[in-house]
Design the sequence.
């Protein structure tokens, strides 16, 4: 029987964004993105759930040291995006619309790069209490 267990770490960060395409008119942006196209930006209290799946290490009893996982999330996600304007301050979104869908994919790849290959990773990003996104789907 497998000793694979899922370990979760939850973090929050605050960031501003605006959903729009530069190559669309103001009218078209407003029609497609509604209030989220507001030229003066708006903020969200994002919540991120990070799920790491792996075998329990018989020596430590851990799947992953959650302190190390938390440090990784802080370095790659929180310090990069917290209290930032995603459109203006973050290179990741200079040419990518910062929708929940795109943000969750960007975060996945930032963490995947640093997480040992033996672990499976899934991330869920909550944009509001009711709207959230998960990658890989
Ligand atoms: Ni928004």
Sequence:
């Amino acid at each position: 029987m497998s000793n694979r267990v899922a370990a979760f770490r939850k973090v929050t960060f605050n960031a501003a964004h605006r959903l729009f395409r530069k190559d669309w008119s103001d009218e078209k942006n407003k029609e497609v993105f509604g209030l989220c196209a507001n030229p003066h930006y708006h903020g969200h209290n994002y919540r991120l759930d990070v799920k790491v799946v792996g075998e329990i290490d018989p020596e430590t009893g851990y799947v992953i040291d959650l302190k190390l996982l938390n440090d990784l999330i802080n370095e790659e996600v929180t310090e990069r995006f917290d209290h930032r304007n995603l459109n203006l301050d973050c290179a990741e979104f200079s040419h990518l619309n910062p929708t929940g869908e795109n943000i969750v994919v960007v975060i996945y790849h930032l963490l995947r790069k640093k997480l040992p290959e033996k672990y499976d990773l899934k991330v869920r990003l909550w944009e509001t209490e009711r709207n959230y996104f998960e990658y890989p789907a």
Summary: The chain has a mean pLDDT of 96. The helical segments are 26-33, 66-81, 86-89, 100-114. The chain has one domain: 4-17+43-135.
